[in-house]
Amino acid sequence: MSHSRTLVLKPTSGWRAIDFAEIWAYRELMAIFAWRDLKVRYRQTLLGAVWVMGQPIVSMLIFTLLFRRVAQLRVSTEVPYPVFVLAGLVIWNFVAGAINRSGNSLIGASHLISKVYFPRLVVPLSNVVTDLVDFALAAMLLIPLMAWYRVTPGLEIVLLPLAVLLATIFALGAGLWVAALNIEYRDVRIVVPWIVQIAMYATPVVYPLSALPERYRLVAMFNPMAGIVETFRATLFGTPFPRWPLAWSVVTSVVLLVSGAFYFRRVERRFADLL
Amino acid sequence: MAEASVTIEHLSKRYKIGAARQDYATLRERIAGAFRRDEERVKETTLWALRDVSFEIAQGEAIGIIGHNGAGKSTLLKILSRITEPTEGQAILRGRVASLLEVGTGFHPELTGRENIYLNGAILGMTRSEIRRNFDAIVAFSEVERFLDTPVKRYSSGMFVRLAFAVAAHLTPEILIVDEVLAVGDIEFQRRCLGRMNEVARSGRTVMFVSHNLPSIESLCPRSVLLSGGRVARDGPTKEVLASYLAQGTGTAAIDVRTLIHHGNGRARITAVYVLEIDSETPLDVLEFRKAFRVRIEYEADENIPDASFGFGLVTRSAQRVFITESYELGKTYDLQPGRGAIDCIIRAPNVLPGAYAFELWISDVPGVSAADHVPMAGAIEITVSGEEPNLALLTSGMRGFVQVPGDWSQIVEMPM
After folding, report:
1. How far apart are the CA of A115 and the nearest CA of chain B, in angstroms?
2. Could you say which of B26, B90, B110 has the minimum Cβ distance to residue A43?
3. Among the partner residues A40, A111, A272, nearest to B111 by beta-carbon distance
4. Which of B407, B356, B404 is nearest to B183 (CA)?
5. Pairwise CA distance, residues A243 & A141, whole Å
6. Closest CA to B299 of B370, B378, B373
C-alpha cells in the first residue's frame, strides 16, 4: 500500500526554516479560527460593532477636546484635526491591538496546543486576520467624517492597501516575538501592554511628526510606527509621503517579521511542555 | 512482511522539572541570571517520562497501550500526536494521522452545534469538504438534530459529549490515536462508540488506544503494550498483558515522599507512604473499585509530640478533595517520641468512582490548629473496575461526581390519572 505521507518524528534543535507549504495546508484551520473569533465577537452584533467603532470615536472626541479646547495647542495639520486624529487612532489601534492579542493568542489557545497538532504559527496569523476585519470596520468611520469635513482623497488612495500591509507586517512581526516570549517568560504579558500604551504618545498618532521640534524629530523617526502612521495618513489624505521614516519602517518591519517568525519556530517545539 | 504502519525506535522523552524551569520563569530573572555566577544556579532535575521505547504496529492493527499513571502513556501519545518532540529516538508514522486526546477539543461554548462541527472537524484535521460530506452522518450519530442551531453552552453534558464524539468518530485517517475518549456518555452511547471504534479498526486502519477502561481495551485490541516507568514492560496478546498489569506490584511499594513539596512546622515529617492490601503486605497501585485498602505512613519526629493526629485525603486530578479522614476526629491521637515510626489507616468501603486520583497526607502536632507536616501531593492512586461490574459504563462516564452512594429509594404515593 502506498502512503499519502510518511512522518518521521525525532528531536530537532536550533533554527528551523518556516514551512510555508504546511501553513498553506492548514489555511482552512486558520480561516476557521478567524471566523470563530469574529463570530463570537459579533454574535451580539450590536455590541461587537459598537465596541470596534465606538472606541476610536470616543478617543477622537477626547483628543479633539483636549487639544483644541483644554490645552489649546496649535498643532497644524493639513486636514481638520478630528479627521487627522481618527485616522491615526484607527491604524494605531489596529497595530497595538494586534500586538497585544497575538501576544496572548498562544496562551488563549493552550488547551488546543496541548491536545492537537497544527503549525503553531496558525494561531497568531489567524489573530491578525481577525484584527484586520476589525480594522476595516473601524476605518469605515473615516468615510462619513472625511465627507463631513470635505476632505477628498487623492490618487494616493490606491496605495492605501500597501500602507495597511506594512502595518500588518509590523504588527505580525512584533506579535510573533511577544507570543513566543510570552510562553517562556511569564512577565512579558504584563510589560508589553504597558509599553504599547506608552508608545502611542511617542508615536505621531494624535500629533503630526512635523509638530515636533527639529531635534526630537530624528529620534521620533527611529520609532518604526512613526512612518507607518504617517504613511497611512498620507495615502488617505494625499499629503506628502514621509520618505525617510517610511523607508525605515519598511526595513524594520520586514526584519521584525522574519526574525519573529524564526524565533517563534525555534521555541515552538517547547510550547506544549511550557504551557 | 509488510511495512509497519508505526515504527517506534528507542523513543525517549526527558522533562526538566523544578529548579530549571523556575530559574527562567520570568524575563527579569533571565536577565538577572546572565550576570549570576554558575555555581549559584540551581541544579536542574530531570525526569525521563519515556525511556528507550521501541515497538512496531502493523498496518490495520488495533493496539492497546496500558500502564499506571506516570508510566509514560500520555507522553507517548503526545509525541505521536506531534504535540511535543522526543528527546531521543524516533517514531515513523506511515500514513495520515489523527489523534483524539480529548473529545470536544476546541469546542466553543458560544457557537452553535452546527458551527462547532466545522470548527472541531477542522481542528482535528478534516478539510471543509470532508466535513460537509460527513455532516449528515455526524448529526445522525450525535442525535442532536433539534439543537443544531443552539449554542453548545446550552447543551446538557450528554449532548455535548455525543456531538463531540460524533465529529471525532468520522475522522478517516490511516492511523488513529485515541486516549480515554470512550469513558463518556451513557451506556447505549458507549456501546455505539465502541462499535464505531471496532469498525474503524476493522476497516484496515491502524488504531492506538489508551484507556483505563480495561474491558474496552480487551474487546477492541488483540495486542497490547504495557508501559511501566517509561519503558515497555510487556508487549503481547492483550489477555496476557492485562494479567501482568493487574498482578503488577510494579515494585514501587514505598513512595518516598521526602523530596516532594512539604508544608508545616517540621516537628515531625512524613518520610514514606505505602498503599497496601488490608490483610497482607502486598503493595497496590491499582485499587479495585469498592475494595478496602490500607495506607501506611512512615514518619520521623525530632521531639516528643504528645497528641499527634494523622490525616489522609483523596484528591481528584483537578485538585478537588474527594474526602479526608483524620485520626483525631475519630478520637485517636498518638504520642510520638523522637525517632521514627509508622501508622496504618484502613479505608473501608471507599465508594470512590473509577479514575485517576492523587492523595495528600499530613501530621498535625496540635490537631485542628497546626500541621507538623503536610504533603499535598504524596502519590497517585488509580481506581479501576473489572469487566464483571454490572454498571461499568455508567461508573466511568465521568459525570457522576466522584463517589457512588447507594440511595434507598421507595415510592410513597402514586396518583394514577
Report:
1. 6
2. B110
3. A40
4. B356
5. 27
6. B373
Which of B202, B247, B198, B220 has its CA nearest to residue B64? Answer: B220
Query: What residues does B363 pair with on adjacent strands?
Result: B310, B373
**What type of residue is B185?**
G
The cell numbers describing B76, all together, are 507517548
The interface pTM score, or ipTM, of the predicted complex is 0.82
Binary contact (B111, A36; C-beta < 8 A):
yes
Measuring CA to CA, which residue among B183, B181, B184 is closest to residue B208?
A: B181
The residues pairing with B316 across neighbouring beta strands, listed in sequence order, are B357
Q: Is A43 on the interface with B (CB under 8 A)?
A: yes
Q: To the nearest whole angstrom, how far is the Cα of A156 from the nearest Cα of chain B?
A: 39
Out of B91, B95, B119, closest to residue A36 by CB: B119
Phi then psi dihedrals of residue B48, to 5 deg:
-90, 105
Digit-coded pLDDT (tens) for B360-414: 999 999 988 888 999 888 888 888 776 566 666 566 666 678 888 888 888 888 8
**For residue B16, which phi and psi values (nearest 5 degrees)?**
-90, 125
Pairing of strands A6-9, B88-94: antiparallel
A·B CB contacts under 8 A: 110
Which triple of cell numbers denotes residue B409?
429509594
Q: When comparing pLDDT for A271 and B285, which is higher?
A: A271
Q: What is the dihedral of CA A220, A221, A222, A227, to 10 degrees?
A: 120
Q: Would you state the cell numbers that stand for residue B298, as one nine-digit string?
A: 512512615
